[in-house]
UniProtKB/TrEMBL annotation:
GO biological process per UniProt: lysine biosynthetic process via diaminopimelate
UniProt-recorded name of the protein: Diaminopimelate decarboxylase
NCBIfam families for this protein: dCO2ase_PEP1 (TIGR03099)
Residues in Orn/DAP/Arg decarboxylase 2 N-terminal domain copies: 41-288
Domain of life, source organism: Bacteria
Organism whose genome encodes this protein: Labedaea rhizosphaerae
Modified residues (N6-(pyridoxal phosphate)lysine): K64
InterPro entries: Ala_racemase/Decarboxylase_C, DCO2ase_PEP1, De-COase2_CS, De-COase2_N, Orn/DAP/Arg_de-COase, PLP-binding_barrel
């Protein structure tokens, strides 16, 4: 059917996750619905990225894409560091063997307690505003530890091709680049330990040329801003934004040219403009999105005026993105399959809906699936990132799903 299904193994006509067929996995988990993350697919994906990245570029994992602790433990052994965006994500990252010095804490609206946590743990605080610099100063005084800070910069350019823009123009993220020199001037007065810069122009980009351009312009801008810094730039987080295909209209991202571009930067602009900087690329969905699948069981099959519906025990409260209500402008079907009849021939279009009492709870609209009925298992792919934790689990008061790493 689609490439997404191809990434998973098949076993005796059934989908397999981590080498276990889906019926057996469902029995092992104990109930449906559930999310399953394939450890080997995550490992493989990190290796693919590593193969194109220059050796000296660090690869970070953006925890908000999927913060499940067991997955973080696995990723801790694969990536160089973590990027977190809340005090709880920070605690979960610190529970792994990844050293605090390899963790960055970004995100607007950090509380005083979160800033204090960051300073005390020794992670890089990615400062999002002038106010946060003052909070960092106070936390440094209170703890007697000079906060390690990087300024998150809202660049003076935008990146085309992003599904979600997080940089350029007016933004709640970062300090506008034209105000960065003023912010840098306060760092020494505040007794803060300047590390460098962080820029993140946009998410879910499938166009390598746009990502390359953003990386080049980020290095140039950081080089210019670094002239006004109280010390050398020792850290530059280039962001990420590598997208994954969600629908049959999406072409997978071509990593090759991104790797070449980074090799060029590491041979030219970086040693020239930022000779002491550790370059970091931070990826969330690209590392885990395609390694996850949401499994839900059919509880009803009904026809209504010539249309066939499969009603499942899960829904948009667990996997909002597949319903089209998480950032999509036009709803398109995510890859979907009958997991326990993965090789069977399509038997006509059905509409797969969740168990919530709202027409928004649509998981597959007129999809070609093999004949399926009560008890069959439906798999929704591309569920490894922004799945469970990006969904309104309390909506309609159903039980929360389980998550397993296999
Ligand atoms: C969300 C986020 C990411 C990860 O984005 P993906 O699209 O999942 O790769 C990276 N960096 C920052 C600062 C973020 O907020």
């Amino acid at each position: 059917m689609t490439a997404a299904i191809g990434a998973f193994e098949r076993m005796d006509g059934r989908l397999a996750v981590g080498g276990i067929d889906v019926e057996r996995l469902a029995a092992r988990v104990g109930s449906t619905p559930f999310f399953a993350y394939d450890r080997a697919l995550v490992t493989q994906r990190v290796a693919e990225v590593r193969a194109v990245l220059p050796e000296r570029v660090h690869l970070h994992y953006a925890v908000k894409a999927n913060p499940m602790p067991a997955l973080l433990q696995h990723l801790s052994g694969l990536v160089d560091g973590f990027d977190v965006a809340s005090g709880i994500e920070l605690r979960n990252a610190l529970d792994t063997p990844t050293p605090a010095s390899r963790i960055g804490f970004a995100g607007p609206g950090k509380s005083e307690a979160e800033v204090c946590q960051a300073v005390a743990s020794g992670v890089v605080l990615e400062v999002e505003s002038e106010r946060e610099l003052v909070v960092a100063r106070d936390a440094s005084v209170a703890t007697g530890i000079a906060a390690r800070v990087a300024l998150r910069v809202n660049p003076d350019f935008t990146v085309r091709g992003s599904g979600m823009r997080l940089g350029g123009g007016p933004q709640q993220f970062g300090i506008d680049s034209e105000r960065v020199p003023t912010a840098l001037a306060t760092l020494s007065d505040y007794g803060l330990d300047f590390q460098g810069f962080h820029m993140f122009a946009g998410s879910q980009n499938l166009r390598h040329a746009d990502i390359c351009e953003a990386q080049r312009r980020t290095v140039e801008l950081a080089g210019r801003l670094g002239d006004a810094a109280p010390g050398p730039v020792r850290y530059l987080n280039l962001g990420g934004g590598f997208g994954i295909p969600y629908t049959d209209r999406d072409q997978p991202l071509d990593l090759g040219p991104i790797g070449e571009n980074l090799h060029e930067l590491m041979a030219g602009a970086v040693p020239k403009l930022l000779p002491q900087a550790q370059i970091v690329v931070e990826l969330g969905r690209y590392l885990v999105g395609e390694a996850g699948v949401y499994i839900t069981r059919v509880v009803d099959r009904k026809s209504s005026r010539c249309k066939t519906f499969l009603v499942v025990d899960g829904g948009m409260h667990h996997q909002l993105a597949a319903s089209g209500n998480f950032g999509q402008v036009i709803r398109r079907n995510f890859p979907i399959a009958v997991a326990n009849r993965i090789d069977a021939e399509p038997a006509g279009p059905v509409t797969v809906v969740g168990c919530l009492c709202t027409p928004l709870d649509l998981l597959g609209d007129n999809v070609e699936l093999p004949k399926a009925g009560i008890g069959d298992l439906i798999a929704l792919f591309q569920a490894g990132a922004y799945g469970l934790t990006a969904s309104p689990t309390a909506f309609l008061s159903h039980p929360a799903p389980l998550e397993v790493v296999v």
